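Note to self: user wants both folds in one dump. Writing first protein now.
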Amino acid sequence: MSSRDLILGRVRRALADVPNGSRDAAVPRDYLREHGDRTTEQTVDLLAENLADYRATVHRADDDQLPALLARLLTERGSRTVLVPPALPPHWLADGGPAVLVQDLAAHTARELDTTDSVVTGCAVAVAETGTIVLDGGADQGRRRITLVPDHHICVVRVPDQVVSSVPQALERLDPARPLTWISGPSATSDIELDRVEGVHGPRTLEVVLVSGV
């Protein structure tokens, strides 16, 4: 008997007591859509708390304060070049300081992207309960590679429009056919001795700006 026959035999035995016609029955999805009853302000606070738990640096600003805040963050970082997606709102980096803005081009190689000091993007949605920001390749986020290669990523989240409580609520807003990137804190991994190393498969530093009044 082959391994395939053995596996299929076990599947048939496991389904032996299932009534005919019920294998395609709808599965009840009565799980909680969110945990707890929170106000919008509390949901945003939870997002900020969980982002910080994942070692992201969280900032808050009104829309009119955003350009000055981004300029300060880039200056403090010492960023000389900043990669920007094609449809990032121009006023976000109107006070960009000494940094040179680099428009993302399909011709850019990974090596060229690696020489860029920072990248600034928007996001598709942010999940409060998991401290996760989700990118879907939208025009203010750009291609997936531009948020994985540069070592410093500033992500702007519009509050409260782009903030949801839970993953199920986030999935309702997302198109599964788009290139989704789920980010919970800066890139990090651990070896067998649990020594943490950051920046292995994404930015070493993640800063999230929660901007209101947009």
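First done. Writing the second protein, which came from a different request thread.
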Amino acid sequence: MSDEMKRHVQEVFSKNKQAYVDSKTHKKQSDLDEVIEWLKPDPSHKALDIATGGGHVAKALSSHCGTVFATDITKDMLQNTARHLTSQQNIEYVVADAEQLPFLDESFDLVTCRIAPHHFPSPHHFIKEVARVLKDNGRFLMIDNVAPEDDGLDEFYNRFEKKRDYSHVRALKISEWEQLFFNNRLSVKKHLTRKKAMPFPDWVCRTLDNEADQKAVEEVFKQAPAQAKKHFSIIEENGRVQSFTIDEYMVIVEKHSS
């Protein structure tokens, strides 16, 4: 099952590789500035950016760290990103599965992963691997979309994401992430949650080019229960969905083996 999911991810991201380099959501500068502010990278640090996509975080880190390894499961995506970041000499590109990282134990001072874990079939294996490759006292910063704690809203959120992008597996709740960190001796140092506004047309077109499929996703929003319309701030104008919000979680954890 998970191999099939990973093939879906590779298909979707190969097809849309340029869209992720250009995506406003993915290249938002204030987000990238915050990553640097929270991690405080310096030239002595070796960093790993997992599921780098368009390479925005890897690029931001490369101005501060000695070496950055940018990994992605999709070779086409990585190749395209490497072509865009030719001026960054200290980034190494490695095709790698987030749940089976090809690195030795305790290799990195810093690890990052942004807007990607909802594509991973096994978050449990992913966090276990992050903890394994981090040095003791190393820090991991993750940003991802999260599902609300309410089960009904969780189901609605993951349903519309999956309908828009079949490589979406599941956005976890914050409580689930916290449990995974705890299980792997990663202690939360700082976290925040925020509402992220999504322009519907840009969002739906990033993965779907068939108009009927786009309309089907729009219908899910239009027929949403009142509680969901409120929580996700779904805005319609002239019978068309214009925008909505999702919950984003940013967290930094530190590894302590003992």
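Dump finished. Worth passing along: The beta strands are 46-50, 67-72, 91-95, 108-114, 134-146, 186-199, 235-237, 240-255.
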